[in-house]
Amino acid sequence: VFNWTGGDFEIGSNASVTLAANLSVPSNGTLQVNGTLNIPDTKTLTIESLTNFNNGSTLSNAGTVELNSGGNLNLNTSNQNLMAGVFNWTGGDFEIGPNASVTLAANFSVPSNGILTINRSLSTLAPNIPQGSTGGSIINNGTITNNNGLSNKNSVINNNGAVINNNSILTNHQLTGVFTNSGTINNNVSSQFNNIHLLNINSTGVFNNSGHLQNISPGTINNHGIIENTNNFTSTGVLNLNTGANLCLLYTSPSPRD
Fold it and tell me: What element of type H or E holds 180?
């Protein structure tokens, strides 16, 4: 029996731990993983505080990882298969570190009280890749901050009240990428939002562009909400401005297009 009610637990770089029972990181505890943590198919790791998978560590999830309110999961290793098992996110923060990348083959939801920060890459797979897969969709009810690479080949749904802050490159890919915004997208200075398939902005949706919004052929933007542009907006594709929508092109002086 391992009763953990507080304090710090570190798995060293030469250590490998396999859960024989469910493990909870308590609200006043910290888990630091520098070695290997294996979660078998019948076991659960519950995160209610700070949990770091540091560079070079290994996360092998064949069971369940639960991230709850107050929890903070920092995934900063390339040796991880978090999505191979179940990832239940009900609250707290999830950070993809500069040494980690996550690829989704199933739906992934950011809860309303959750914050997702991408410092390397998060990618959705197109349907039938791998063969027979429905692909992975991102459903955002909270806040997503993209500081490096968000790549969509399936579906991203930004619900009413949710926020996506893009500080880098965000690409909605040709043929399969569908991006639906009912909340707020902030495409910030020096960032780039590339739409090569379909971007739907619903009636409650707002797209604030102070970076570079590119609608690249054969891309289509269907605007039923608000696009407010204060920097660079280029379109070689189709832009549909629907009844009740607002397209506002605001340029500073001198023009940021110069």
Answer: strand 178-181
Q: Which residues make Cβ contacts (< 8 Å) with residue 112, sequence separation at least 6?
A: 141, 142, 161, 162
Q: Could you tell me if 167 and 189 are in contact, meaning their C-beta atoms sit under 8 angstroms apart?
A: no
pTM above 0.85, yes or no: yes
The angle subtended at Cα 247 by Cα 243 and Cα 250, nearest 5°, is: 160
**Alpha-helix runs per DSSP H in 90-226:** none
Dist. CA 51–CA 10, nearest whole Å: 10
122, 101 Cβ separation under 8 angstroms: yes
Question: Hey, what are 101's tokens?
Answer: 């990348």
Residue 78 to residue 95: CA distance in whole angstroms: 13
Among the ranges given (62-71, 97-106, 150-159, 224-233), the one the predictor scored with the smallest mean pLDDT:
97-106
**Can you tell me which residue has the tokens 């920060």?**
117
SS3 82: helix
- Give residue for tokens 């549909």: 240
Q: 90-117 pLDDT, tens per residue?
A: 999 999 999 999 988 778 999 999 999 9
Distance between CA 24 and CA 29 in Å, rounded? Answer: 9
Q: How far is CA 117 from CA 96, 120, 125, 160, 179, in A?
A: 6, 9, 19, 19, 19
